[in-house]
Amino acid sequence: MDFITIPLVVGIVTLGIYKLFELFVRKKERLSIIEKIGEKFDASMIENKFSFPSKIFKNFSFGSLKAGCLLMGVGLGLLVGFVICISTIRGYNLGDSMNWGVRDTAGIVYGASVLIFGGFGLIAAFIVEMKYSKKDKDEA
């Protein structure tokens, strides 16, 4: 391991110096941008900019809904795969004594159920998103 220590330390020191210089350069760039904006900026530009919009969910992102439905589908797929393995595969006892055929079959069951139910979760998220966007268009 001694052969990697010197290049690793040199690399870390070099990276630290580079990031330090980059920090100061970015600070100068930001200050110059603020000065340029300050010349063209007028206080009357922001009089009505801080009012809340009439619709809070106008630019609503469905990323958390998609992730939640996907993870729920994956969890349900794991549960269904476990139930299928316990109830149908002979010799499946989650111990070390399983042979390769039982493990191979269990892996296929788990993989297929996770993919199927994860897909169902994404389809459910898509349907909810479409219903919401349709309702939003009807109200507008």
From TrEMBL:
The keyword Lipoprotein does not apply. Residues 9-129 form the DUF6249 domain. Keywords: Membrane, Transmembrane, Transmembrane helix. Pfam families: DUF6249. The chain crosses the membrane at residues 6-25, 67-89, 109-128. Coiled coil: none annotated. This is DUF6249 domain-containing protein. It comes from Bacteroides luti.
